[in-house]
Amino acid sequence: IGAGRKDEAIYYTKKMCLVSEVVIIISCLLVFALTKPIIHLGGMSAESGRMCFFMVTWITIIKPIVWVSAFIPAYSMRAAGDVKFSMIVSCCTTMWLCRVTLCVVLCRVFGFGPIAVWIGMFSDWTLRGIFYTLRFHGRKWLDHKVIE
What secondary structure, in 3-state letters, does the chain show? Predict the structure, then answer.
């Protein structure tokens, strides 16, 4: 961005999204494959082991779908000087709406267990991904100046 090559910023952001997606898929599958042996080696109770496997299964499914769009474009936008937007989205909007409020409602009103925290986290990632994808494709983030 500092050199005025906005097309390269877009290209490399998309490239990093692709690389990140591959790394996340590989790491999620590796953790998933190791979950049962680790549960066994850790000597967890049967119920704790089932809960752990259930939660790891869900993160293995959800993370590759939503994580990249929730984080990688925001890194590029912040590097380009679009810090205010990503800070408002991540701290004020998605964190309080999804991670905190949704988790409290799921736990206290509907009696969800630890998975409520992950549902809040997944919702946060999904909502962030929507906001950041729209902002990234809108190209407004390219108009900021980091150094005058």
Answer: CCCCCHHHHHHHHHHHHHHHHHHHHHHHHHHHHHHHHHHHHHCCCHHHHHHHHHHHHHHHHHHHHHHHHHHHHHHHHHHCCCHHHHHHHHHHHHHHHHHHHHHHHHHHHCCCCCHHHHHHHHHHHHHHHHHHHHHHHHCHHHHCCCCC
Q: Give the pTM.
A: 0.88
Under a CB-based contact definition with an 8 Å cutoff, are residues 76 and 13 in contact?
yes
What tokens appear for 123 in the block? 């919702």
CA distance 36 to 33: 7
For 37, the token pair is 């042996």
Contact assessment for residue 49 and residue 39, using Cβ atoms and an 8 Å cutoff = yes
pLDDT in tens, the chain (148 residues): 767 788 999 999 999 999 999 999 999 999 999 999 999 999 999 999 999 999 999 999 999 999 999 999 999 999 888 888 989 998 887 888 888 999 999 999 999 999 999 999 999 999 999 999 999 999 988 887 766 6
